[in-house]
Q: What sequence folds into this?
């Protein structure tokens, strides 16, 4: 049993990598090769598809737009969630349990329910087609998630830490920034990872709230797919590039993933 | 943890409250508005009472998409939860294998959902996709754009590919938190592998598994982008899950009244199930 144990994760990882490999494979092929032949690796290796994406501004601005609103959303979510999570983990106050559950209900709300009202609402406050609109709309599910995860991490920090700091003459804010935040760095890292992840992968709201100026890369892809026939090579190259930001983020939190999952709630 | 009563804590919660309320309450009120009224544009509304709700509750289209949604959610939970636990149990516990597994397994979680759909579309196409081509070469008559069974098979396989890692990561975290002393004690007692699993590992994973089931239920219940890109809800309406059907109704046909009523019913179902889970989870936490 012990010797054969590695087979299960290995087979699983191969299963995970196959579609990704296929996408990469397609992205290095010419359109004629994709349509006319079935090949397991590119026969005529080409970088033409990637070249198009990096030189055509309708493509590369999509990436910049996405990264812009995702970072904005991550910063807003974590900044707002930090004090709130502290309050939930340390104090009892009127309506705390109900508030906590109400926050979670927004994580549970299907984005499809909100698509139309969001469109009307953000248009009426003149925020339609801006990065801020997407960043704010993603707060709907990211803030509850951030509060939830951070609360888990903060509750794991013993309350004696706070009390000792106050006895030593720290003011609340000085304690919060100098002592408390550094002790939960791992938790903040994990939270940022999840906020980044859910904002990066969400498309329905991002697509509904943008037209030209703030259009995310994912929406550029769907529109290209539907308008200019099926340029599979280009689509595959664009898709492959969307994997990179995620891979970078995973690399940074790799040491925290398992540890962080165990400490926090998610 | 003993919490002190402090009403001033509300000040800490205000930014979160304002931001979420801005996003949740105002748009939700718009939905409620549409759900009870009929409009012909120009901000002219007529009171309709519960007509839209009755219409939706009685419509076969809604029953069908709700049925498909529950079937899909149960199938993927039934596959992903045991599979995720099995993989977490067999994963290396230390050494270089740990980060390699974690990083590679997290990959699908960070790919934008429409890219997941597009990727599986390319992967499963019967003529040029690896999966489609291989299945046909093996003698199966596979075409996910034409045959209902194949469309379901592909959608489920895609979801298993996309989300099983989340269950793996959560279960793995649960397993990591078990002290080695438990295993040593089990060894001394001569416990079987199965006994170790049911008596030590499973109870310790209870909390993370509840979260995993909760998250997977919520997210699979609102799945939209991946099947939309993969199959477009087709062939026919075979894979039109609730969200796809709703968006079709609201933004495609602009049937605002019925769509709003459907939104509220939809939201209510998700809330109800999640409330049950949440209560169970909080009760468990209280016991520990």
A:
């Amino acid at each position: 049993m012990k010797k054969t144990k590695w087979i299960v994760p290995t087979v699983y990882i191969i299963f995970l990598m196959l579609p990704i490999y296929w996408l990469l494979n397609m992205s290095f092929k010419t359109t004629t090769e994709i349509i006319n032949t079935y090949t397991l690796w590119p026969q005529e290796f080409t970088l033409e598809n990637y070249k198009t994406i990096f030189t055509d501004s309708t493509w590369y601005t999509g990436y910049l737009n996405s990264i812009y609103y995702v970072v904005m959303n991550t910063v807003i979510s974590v900044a707002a969630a930090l004090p709130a999570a502290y309050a939930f983990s340390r104090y009892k106050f009127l309506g705390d349990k109900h508030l906590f559950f109400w926050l979670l209900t927004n994580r549970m709300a299907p984005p499809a329910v909100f698509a139309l009202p969001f469109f009307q609402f953000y248009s009426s406050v003149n925020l339609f087609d801006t990065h801020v609109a997407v960043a704010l709309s993603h707060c709907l599910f990211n803030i509850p998630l951030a509060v939830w995860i951070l609360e888990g991490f903060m509750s794991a920090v013993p309350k004696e830490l706070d009390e000792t700091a106050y006895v030593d003459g720290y003011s609340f804010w000085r304690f919060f920034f100098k002592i408390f935040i550094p002790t939960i760095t791992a938790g903040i890292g994990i939270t940022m990872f999840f906020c980044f992840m859910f904002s990066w992968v969400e498309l329905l709201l991002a697509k509904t709230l943008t037209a030209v100026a703030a259009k995310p890369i994912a929406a550029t892809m769907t529109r290209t797919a539907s308008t200019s026939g099926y340029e599979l090579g280009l689509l595959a190259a664009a898709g492959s590039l969307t994997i990179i930001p995620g891979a970078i983020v995973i690399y940074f939190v790799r040491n925290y993933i398992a540890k962080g999952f165990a400490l926090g709630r998610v | 943890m003993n919490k002190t009563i402090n009403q001033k804590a509300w000040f800490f919660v205000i930014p979160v409250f304002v931001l979420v309320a801005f996003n949740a309450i105002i748009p939700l009120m718009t939905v409620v508005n549409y759900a009870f009224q009929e409009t012909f544009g120009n901000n002219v509304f007529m009171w309709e009472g519960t007509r839209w709700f009755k219409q939706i509750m009685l419509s076969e289209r809604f029953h069908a998409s709700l049925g498909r949604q529950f079937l899909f959610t149960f199938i993927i939970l039934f596959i992903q939860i045991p599979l995720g636990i099995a993989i977490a149990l067999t994963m290396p516990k230390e050494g270089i294998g740990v980060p390699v597994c974690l990083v590679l397994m997290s990959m699908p979680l960070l790919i934008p959902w429409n890219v997941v759909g597009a990727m599986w579309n390319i992967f499963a196409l019967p003529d040029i996709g690896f999966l489609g081509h291989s299945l046909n070469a093996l003698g199966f008559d596979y075409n996910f754009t034409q045959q209902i069974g194949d469309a379901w098979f592909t959608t489920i396989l895609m979801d298993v590919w996309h989300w099983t890692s989340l269950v793996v990561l959560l279960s793995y975290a649960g397993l990591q938190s078990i002290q080695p002393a438990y295993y040593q004690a089990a060894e001394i007692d001569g416990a079987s592998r199965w006994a170790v699993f049911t008596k030590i590992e499973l109870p310790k994973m209870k909390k993370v598994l509840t979260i995993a089931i909760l998250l997977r239920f919520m997210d699979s219940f609102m799945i939209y982008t991946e099947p939309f890109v993969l199959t477009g809800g087709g062939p026919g309406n075979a894979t039109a899950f609730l969200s796809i059907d709703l968006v079709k109704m609201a933004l495609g046909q602009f049937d605002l009244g019925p769509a709003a009523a459907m939104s509220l019913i939809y939201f209510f179902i998700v809330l109800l199930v999640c409330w049950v889970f949440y209560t169970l989870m909080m009760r468990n936490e209280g016991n520990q």
